[in-house]
Amino acid sequence: MDLFSPIKVGPHTLANRVAMAPLARARCGDDRAPNDLVCEYYTQRSGAGLIVSEASSVSPMSVSRPYASAIYGDAHMQGWTRVADAVHAAGGIMFQQIYHIGRKSDPSRMPGGAKPVAPSEVAAKGQVNGLNGPVDFATPRALEDSEIPGVIEEFRRGAAHFKAAGMDGVEIHGANAFLVDQFLKDVTNRRTDGYGGSVENRARFLLEVVEAVADVWGADRVGIRLSPHSRGDGIGTSDSSALYEFLAKELDGMSLAYIHLVEGQADGIPQSPAEGDAPLMGLIRENFSGPLIVNGGYQRETATKLIETGQTDMVAFGSLFIANPDLVERFRQNAEMNEPDRSSFHVGGAEGYTDYPFLAG
Fold first, then answer.
1. How far are the Cα atoms of 28, 141, 228 from residue 148, in angstroms, in the given order?
2. Which phi and psi (to 5°) does residue 332 adopt?
3. How many CA atoms lie within 13 A of 232 on its CB side?
4. pLDDT tens-place string over residues 292-341
5. Where does residue 255 rank: exposed (0-12), middle (13-18), buried (19+ CB within 10 A)?
6. CATH number of this structure's domain 15-344
7. What is the number of other CB atoms lying within 10 angstroms of the CB of residue 355?
8. Could you say which of 5, 8, 140, 191 would form a disulfide bridge with 118 (CB–CB 3.0 to 4.6 Å)?
9. CB contact burial 118-154 (16+ within 10 A = b; e otherwise)
10. Three-state SS for 325?
11. Are strands 127-130 and 133-136 parallel, antiparallel or unpaired?
């Protein structure tokens, strides 16, 4: 096996083992619906074995930077239908990532001046670019036990919209300190009800979201992204090994399409194990029999070694795919890579988005 070997993921046979990681690029319209530029961007990268889209918010209460994607309205679904059609016409396969930001929502853009919601009243460390410049993350409001089924229903509805849009599957964002991850980690989840305390209780929200989305799609078209070591905004947990071993076993019993594991770097933020924090790729591999995708600063050589040694089934690439729309072909030829322009990662139009050059010929 190598990067170019086909692989079965759910009902899909992927042409290669190179995945495009979900990448927030903030190029949608004012209404957060993807436009023609977004269609072009994903179509350019349809040579990936699997495209995982940028995360799309399932709720108006999940408010991120301007021009970020959403999936709670008809316009959002229509925009993503155009993207799915374009990617399929180019021969690509695409899973759509869905999420709720939770406590990291922009307090200056919350509807009706509402507070962001979270498992507990614990503010994220750092700032967000608000309407009038940088503002501190707000102290969120803890979700009432009675509200949680409604949030899970938002995930179900978002998944249904993406199915209607013609996507090939859905990836639930359970990583990077967003709402699902906030429930998992004991730094952010201080609840004393059935959604907090023990590993089993803290995993409950994630597992109920998975069940709701799988009810729409079928489990073999549902993936999940996990980041055991994320701590960029003060998130963390005291029991990573126990938590993620439990999750791997539970998710294995659900027969999901894949687990997408961040173990390395994501968006320039170290996600690799800290001192005393064991790497978990092997633990998850041992307890989850489905396909494993890993992501985090890997290059052609390191990714090839992981696949050849059986440590993972696929590798997802982020910044390399931003700068190299024909990344698979560049890997195949061992060609020189374009350098990514980080200043344009989350702002701008076509520049730094769809204007990176392809290989000549």
1. 29, 13, 23
2. -60, -40
3. 18
4. 999 988 999 999 999 999 999 999 999 999 999 999 999 999 999 999 99
5. middle
6. 3.20.20.70
7. 11
8. 140
9. bbbebbbeeebeeeeeeeebbebebbeeeebeebbeb
10. coil
11. antiparallel
